[in-house]
Write a structure and sequence with these properties.
The structure is a single chain. Helix content is 36%, strand content 19%. It has 213 residues and is of the alpha/beta class. It has a single domain, classed as TIM Barrel, CATH 3.20.20. Strands 1-8-7-6-5-4-3-2 form an 8-stranded parallel beta sheet. Helix 1 runs parallel beside helix 8. It is globular and about 40 Å long. Bound molecules: D-xylitol-5-phosphate (DX5) and zinc ion. The site of D-xylitol-5-phosphate has 19 residues, from strand 2, strand 8 and helix 7.
Amino acid sequence: MKVSPSVISSRLENLASEISKCIDGGAASFHLDVMDGHFVPNLTMGPDLVRAIRRCTDHELEVHLMLQDPGRYYRDFLEAGADLPLIHVESPVNTGVLLRKIIMEGSRYGVVINPETPFEKALPFLDEAALLLVMSVHPGFSGQSFIKDSVYKIREARSYIDEHRLKALIEVDGGINLETAKICRDAGADVVVSASYIFSGNVTERVGLLARL
Ligand code: DX5
Ligand code: ZN
């Protein structure tokens, strides 16, 4: 299982060492939760923090853009060193136009669907996606419980992606711990995001436990 720790829940005063602990545990990438206080009621990081994180690691940085206007900001995050913008189909923008622009500019993208959004909404953007992010909590806060119905969506996505031989990885975000990660793995997920489980205990050990699933 690939593990992408969401570092916003780490001890931010020790960010560089928290990142190294994740790498020691076998983290495959880092998940950066960007929230604007509009698309979701919470506020988190901007490009400057992403730039600082870039200086801490060469691992892939995915930016989960929980923004009302991702089209206005994604370039700032890419210029700050992020590798993979993750765009919600629920953002009130023309998703197709935005994703096309990202590809034309030479970047990859991931597409994100909320718990109440059917898998079909991601279909028009899946052929070229590097990743499909299935939200297993309502975006906005870490520490919520895994929504069990997400498992059906992971299974549906797995069979569609396999049947159509698409390159998109399936990533699951929200309420991931050892138990729910196993459920996601069995349903066909490739990557799990985790914040509160990893950073409320021994970071290296917990990343390792997830990575060895
Ligand atoms: C929720 C974020 C998640 C969240 C995960 O809006 O997208 O990445 O931080 O937190 P946990 O792992 O605690 O559910
Ligand atoms: Zn996230």
